[in-house]
Amino acid sequence: MTLQNKIDFAVIFSVKNANPNGDPLGGNRPRTTSDGLGEVSDVCLKRKIRNRLQEMGNDIFVQSDENNRDGKKSLSDRFNSFLSSLPKDEQKNKDIVSTRVCERWLDVRSFGQVFAFKKGDDVDEVSLGVRGPVTIQSAFTVEPVTIESIQITKSVNSETTKDGRKSPDTMGMKHRINKAIYITYGSISPQLAEKTGFGDDDTEKIKAALSTLFEGDESSARPSGSMDIQQIVWFKHDTKAGQYSSAKVHDSVLVDVDGNVEIKPLDGLLPEIIGG
Question: What is the spatial distance between Cα 182 and Cα 48, in angstroms, rounded to a whole number?
Fold first, then answer.
């Protein structure tokens, strides 16, 4: 059964001595806004959600290279391989193909996907777009952040030197945020869920992925334990349309610099509070 109730949610997480989302245009320094707030992009958050959903055993279309499970070298290869497995009469019917890709991959029926790839060897070109019910915003800190940068050197040779001596140290930089609280907001639309087949079971999977978002996400920039989900505030409306607008629901969640959460009451809409 597809989703029958509108969902709004807020996710609060902490960062300690880590680079939560490096900016390639800024020398991989942590992303910040023009007014100094720390930022984690929505694309980065969806990547982490996809990784968690995949670790939970779900089929994911947009797989990262390190989590590639089917050996396909590109999204085009993955899509065309799936398309060629469908009956010939279904391959040229965009409505049927749209239904099949939503049935096949959880991230497609959750976030949607644009399929516009070169044709494969055995199938005609298909270009279609799927609009998903799950949306999530970029996360921002509750106050401006201070970025610390440290210089690093290599203690071993990358290449063998002619005289056998140690090569000159290679200098580099690492950047981190000492301490910050981030908050992001999202929604799930029942109207769009009807179009992709997104159901109540899928909602629970998204909720589980959010509550364990940083498990298995460790790296030198994000050491184990440096990023932690503090709380998830989950609002389930009584109707498909929702009792309140998403903006009003999101604005009801207030977070201070220490991560303390205050929820302004909304008549008839009680949130579920989920710990990290």
Answer: 15
CB atoms within 10 A of CB 232: 21
Residue 268 vs residues 67, 238, 249, 273: alpha-carbon distances, Å: 42, 9, 12, 16
Query: pLDDT digits over 46-72, tens only?
Result: 999 999 999 999 999 999 988 898 999
For residue 65, the surrounding DSSP H or E stretch is none
In terms of residues, how long is the chain? 276
Copy the structure tokens of residue 190.
């029942």
pLDDT one-digit tens code per residue, 131-172:
999 999 999 999 999 999 988 876 676 677 666 666 666 667
Dihedral sign from CA coordinates of 202, 203, 205, 206: positive
Q: How many CB atoms lie within 10 A of CB 134?
A: 25
Structure tokens that stand for 116 in this block: 């516009």
Q: Are 42 and 254 in contact (CB under 8 A)?
A: no
